[in-house]
Amino acid sequence: MCPFCSTHLETINHLFLHCKLSWSLWQRLVSWWGAEWVVPGDITVWYYNWPFLSPSITNRSTWLLLGLSLLWTIWLARNNLVFTNVEPNHVQLFDVSLVRAFWWIKSLQPEFPYSAGCSFLAADALHSWRGVLRKFT
Ligand SMILES: [Zn+2]
Predict the structure, then answer these.
(1) Which domain of life is it from (predicted)?
(2) Distance between CA atoms of 34 and 11, rounded to whole angstroms?
């Protein structure tokens, strides 16, 4: 059973996309970035389509890192619940995911002009920042 909701089987698609907790985190991230989406039925569909959901074509790699950070955050929250019985906190998980993404971006591009503390304010600025895109292309 899914450790978050205890109502569905724990499949990769349910855990990372469709569980109420995960779905709400995705919705919050998409809204924060200013994008729109429909939750895909399969994680592979997510992988191939996620970079193109960003309204800003100049910074799809940053958008990809934000999504990968959220996946990693969901996985760690799942493990914290299963192995240490720590209940996930939706607000904290979202914040941690943003901070983690900012640290990843900073590690890839030291000239990235934002600190992790800016992660809650800088979505608009990230749309026009091209540094990570240069690194990946
Ligand atoms: Zn669930």
Answers:
(1) Eukaryota
(2) 29
